Amino acid sequence: MLRHLLLLVFFITLTLPASVRAFTVPYQRVFQQRGSIMAIDVYGEADPHYVQCDLDQWTCIETGTSTPNLFPEFTEKQYILSKDRQLALVSEGYGATQQYDLYTLEAGDVTKKTIDFIGETKRAIFSDDNTKILFVTLYGEFVVFNIQTNSAIKSIPIVGGASFIRFSPHGNYVAYFSPSTLSGKDRVYTLVDVARGHTYTWKEKNDYWDLLSEEEKAFDFSPDERHFFYLSDREGTQTLYMTRLWLLDGINGRLGKRMFKSDFTVNNFLFGADGLLYFTANRKSPLIWSLYSYDFRDQLVRGLVDDVLYWPAPQQSGKYIIFLRSKNELPSLYTFDITKRSVASLPLTITASPFPLGAGKIKNFSGRYGVLYTPDGYDKKKSYPLIVWLHGGPHRQTSPSFHSYHSYGTYDGILEHLRKNGFLVLKLDYRGSYGYGKKFATDLKGNVGNLDVKDVVDATAVLKKEMKIGEVYPMGTSYGGYLALRALAGKPTLFDGAISVNGVTDWWTLINNDPDSIFQVHFNGTPSAKNKVLYDQASIFLRLNNLKNKKVILVNGEEDATVPHRQTTMLYDALIDKGMAPTIISYEKEGHILTNSANIDDLCNQVVKLPTGYEGKVCVQASTL
To answer: Quick check: pTM over 0.70?
Structure first.
């Protein structure tokens, strides 16, 4: 008998029923900007296309599928732009003889000069006022370069690693960050006063992976360089700390005072042209992200707009703060006008089909939040099957609308199709998730297969008491795919099956094959006799008998480099040897994130037929929603 009876999915035009086409979930992002002209990438479809907007004229036009280039003078060149895009630095040559040309970009006039700096660098950063350049060399130092005098004015040694590098607006300070590692338990913050030649360094203990390292930025300075800001979770909540730079005078020790007393999470922050601090935070609810402003004059926080996506990070362009937003509709680019204090969507003329989501209800299961969706025409007297959706990560988060990450937004589309086909859907955050503080995330250490499973079981049990629920299927991707299987194996009386998409099935094997995996932090190291009890606690293979007579779908991308497809086939083999009948689906040319719309549609069609009585269903076509 063939041990690997894989359901290989090859797609031709007649693969899907005539009434159904593969669906897509298009997102928008700023691709390039020059002056008031902005090129926008609409991606997530078979063929990405572009829109060009003029913010001054407040007009947008579609420009087709060709990749735009707003800087044709630098075609096939490596270049770095200043914040206002008025200067460009172009490197020529390689290695120790690499040199740099500085371009001044003005309307109808481009000038060039070769600067007096030679050497190979990792990156270069302009000061916001365009007076200095910070070169990050390959030899462990920063070089501060004065543009006006065309000369290097300071060399600064880099101590330890240097990520999240921020060069202050006038080039008088440099801040950088060295995350904690599995071997080094301290994260290190460094602030360099370039003019005075003083370096401030402070450390924070961290015995988990460094969650701050997953953010977009860690530092910023006020435009007048009077205040310095950085992210920290040292008091249990990821939030902003502020230092008054004019009071520093060789002070040693940890810098900064916490800005906000309440325990909400802050992730993105930037300054507008009005000098106010703008940031995204989940101040109203762990699952609702909003854009806020902070005014130093009255020290008040003001809410500006809800339902903001936190990735990609909001950005400043002239008088606008530009950000993505989604409230039950496809994510779209919006602007906040700092002069009018008003919010507006960009006037895009995109022809993509509308894709509204059903309105979900945020549920609080004793501090574990989720979003519950009910079918159209929901009747509380009738019974419906339930999908419990579990995100990956595990340091990620679900969302009431389309997720900030397009990879999860695609699954939001699948879940909406299931809802339209008569499913209840619960998108659940479990221990380890993002947006709830450090303890909620780090509680997973030593508790994989325990607290995460408990959160899934408890939330499902609560819903079954509140509603008439038929068959229940946990479903997830990556870590969520593991958790779906482990929840089924841990509480088989509660669940009727599970769907795992590119999920881990055996941590012992995964980490043995990749001993540098960050996931070893959950088990206090790589597999050994000392921590075997933690790996056993997380094991699905030790509980295979609990999967008997359950409907199990195992999905993997054949080119997944994050969770090798052997993780999927290994569990499939073990279940077959036990006389069980799981379904295994292997998608060609797919990695850890599914991107082929036909594969995504097929996955939806596999899941929608799982419950008894649903065998004839197919996922609703996106254009009919």
So the answer is: yes
